[in-house]
Automatic annotation (TrEMBL), chain A:
Keywords: Membrane, Transmembrane, Transmembrane helix. It comes from Streptomyces aidingensis. Signal peptide: none annotated. The keyword Transmembrane helix applies. GO terms for cellular component: plasma membrane. The chain crosses the membrane at residues 40-59, 79-101, 122-147, 167-186, 198-216, 251-273. Residues 1-13 have a biased composition (Pro residues). It holds the Pfam family ABC2_membrane_2. GO terms for molecular function: ABC-type transporter activity. Residues 1-21 are annotated as: Disordered. This is ABC-2 type transport system permease protein. It comes from the Bacteria.
TrEMBL record, chain B:
Keywords: Membrane, Transmembrane, Transmembrane helix. Residues 1-20 have a biased composition (Basic and acidic residues). PANTHER family: INTEGRAL MEMBRANE PROTEIN-RELATED (PTHR37305), MEMBRANE PROTEIN (PTHR37305:SF1). Residues 21-33 have a biased composition (Low complexity). This is ABC-2 family transporter protein. Residues 1-34 are annotated as: Disordered. One of its GO terms (molecular function) is ABC-type transporter activity. Pfam families: ABC2_membrane_2. The keyword Membrane applies. GO terms for cellular component: plasma membrane. The chain crosses the membrane at residues 51-72, 313-331, 352-382, 402-424, 431-453, 496-515.
Amino acid sequence: MSGPGPGPGPGPGPGARAGARRLGTVHAEWTKLRTLTSTWWLLSAVVGLTVAAGVAVSGSLTAGACPVPAECHEDTVRIGLTGIWLGQGAVIVLAVLAVSGEYGTGTIRAALAAEPRRLRLLAAKALVVGALTAAAGAAAVAGALLAGRRVLAADGFPLPALTEGPVLRAAAGTVLYLVLTALLALGAGAALRDTATAVTAVLAVCYLLPLLAGLVSEPEWQERLLRLAPSTAGLAVQATANLDGLPIGPWPGLAVLTAWTAAALAAGAAVLCTRDV
Amino acid sequence: MTLPETRDRDRDRDRDRDRAGAGPASPPAARDGFPQLLHAEWTKLRTVPRWGLTLLGGIALTVLISFFSAAGSSVEIADQDRPPVPAGREGQQLVDSVGFAHRALHGDGSITARVSGPAGVEPEQAPEWAKAGLLIRESLTPGADYAALMVTAGHGVRMQSEFARDVPGSAAASPDTPHWLRLTRTGSTVTGYESADGEEWSEVGTVRLADAPEELSVGLFVGSPDITRMERAFGNVTVGQLGSSATADFDEVSIEGGVTARDWRHTDIGGVSPSAGDPGEFRRSGSVFTLTGSGDIGPAPTDTDLAATALNGSQLGLVLIAAVGVLFITAEYRRGMIRTTFTAGPRRGRVLAAKAVVIGAVAFAAGLVAALVSFLLAMPVLRDNGHVPPMFPELALGDAAVLRAVLGTGLLLALIAVLALGLGALTRSTAVSITAVVVVFVLPLILVSTLPLELSQWLQRLTPMAGFAVQQTLPRYGHVERLCLPENACYPQGPWTGLTTLLLYTAAVLALAAWRLRKRDA
């Protein structure tokens, strides 16, 4: 995690001052998030939950699932990264609170007085939240993959090398997935403003849509839902085997999530720019 | 979405409520009573329109999802050429196909034999419930009433009847050592005896035959149930039934009573089962009878739990109801109202208890309404889509299992709401609490169909999602192997065990929250 540049200094020219000011907004957001203890709790939860769940799930692969570990059909990389389903919950809380928390306490008025260009404020928040999520996500993914490999190797599973294309795609894609989910939640927070409403809405999109896909009995609709829900589509990027069996390919899946994120951010920006605070 | 005006109005109302709560008009002594606390909390819940709307939304979501998932369902009949399935007295689906060597018995009498087996033919390792023994049937038609006494490959001596009844005898009896069995018929009563040596006999059980006609078929039988093969990977499940067959030797066979002159005959009850392929065999050399057979006599449980399907919208509806449970306390923390509440009722544990009772009762009512409406709307749709007897049970709201599922759904949602309240009191954060509830309840429901089976079943047993087990209505039989997959909303534990697991979680979180409330400043 690298902190952004120094705060606004006495700049010589107007261009430099504008640049410094942009950095100033980012710095202010960084300070806000940094000084909340909840931020660090939530980020530790992202790493801790993802790694712990990954180890637990990898460990469970031993017993009944594969008669012969060497012929296991399971996608070990994907299974080791299952914990991301838990970790994303903490990411959602962090990102929603980064905006809605300010509405709850009223500091949004001070924030906008300091940075009247509202889009810039949203961009600064997105940058800081995105960077923090990326850092925590990278740690979580690395931890889950390495710990999961240790568990699986001990049981004699054949493991793909970490440098293989699909494994790298799964690892980098999962970090991207977390960042995009964070930005989706941030956009929803800006659009809905109320913590309870925004959190429930994001959770509904991220968790209830996949559950709904499981309940729908018509296969056609099920497939459609799995392709459209941001979490199931986005997590297709974790697959390293049996790609044909996926409802959507790894990168197109991430593109679906990106579309959701863009829509949420656009809605957040529109509400922020047009509505009174 | 809260408009600024509404928020002001909310605040005004809060202020009014504060004034009313702290007002000098009411004597302070009455404030402390639990009924007053309940009344205060009920007033708070009642007067926030948004919460009422959210609860209604939870009901509507439950009903809608249940209805649409029922509307999209269809029945695929895998094997059109299969002979019509025999149906039991309540219309339930049955399996009735074993190899049977028999004679006709008039009036009272008994049959005795020494059984060596069953031993597996195909595969060599016989299924645990492969069976060989004595059988009395009212007729040779599948579905006829019977009494059977048998040695099983893995479960000792059993006496079975009415397809669902299974009485254990001595567990020590194994297929490797010969074992004596005897069935005695007196009127409509059949009594089973067993013996290890043919000298000392002990009773296993008695069976009352429904019609008990004068002439019955008595004889020897061998069955070996189908083996279920399952492959489960990448969230896809392939289930296949593999036929199996077993053989057993019978000697010292004797029938006492009115036996007709006709000699032994051999029948594969229900015809040759398509999964077994080969017909059974019956050979006699001297006094030793050798019988080979496949199939089973028992219930044929379906995978689809119709009541659970008709109620599955509650898996989504729970989120809105839990959100109200969380807000019921975190909203007070956000607005500072909690201080007024604790001034009015300084015993914080009781305040929390009052909140729990109010939100629990309201969520129970909401859940019950949602479950009732869901069931009543979804059942006819499921029936129209082909979920009819004998493949599926005919379910009515009055059935004990259905009542348990519907009432249980109300209890389930009440417990979830109280758990959410406890989490709210514990964390004081709306966002964290709502997320925790969703992650704890919804995430396992998503993941159980993709994780390895063993882990999924542990999640079903140990996480709070266990509460959903209460929606199961399919009967469980100890004497029939049944594939219990999370995909089919089948839980490894019983309905009440599951709900108790959730109850323990709720109690623990609430106790922790009460303890923290007392320790921490408001």
